[in-house]
Specification:
Elements (H helix, E strand, L loop, with lengths): L3 E3 L29 H7 L2 E5 H8 L11 E4 L13 E4 L3 H10 L4 E4 L4
Parallel strand pairs: 1-5, 2-3, 2-5, 3-4
Amino acid sequence: MPFQASVFVGTSVDGFIARADGALDWLPQDAEDHGYDAFFQSVDAVLLGRLSYETVLGFGSWPYGDKPVYVLSTRPLRPAPPQAIVHHLAGEPRDIVQRLVAAGVRHAYIDGGV
């Protein structure tokens, strides 16, 4: 079965996903769903870079529920919240995809990253 990676992002009019300091405060908190819930249900796992992971840790609540999250980083990670399913991955993209497929991931949501 093939592996699929997808993104679902909001961007500012000038084409940025976050402010220069990484802040997401320009995103409206009460925005319409725009299909995000259906999209999120269609993925098996979430892939994050370390900086995006650290940003998410500051949200106050874990936004991914019980969906497995794979954080790509060569550095150690801060501890995940107790309810979170977080895996640390590093390596070449081909190797990472092979490891994801071996874990049963067929459709991954790429959320954040440089």
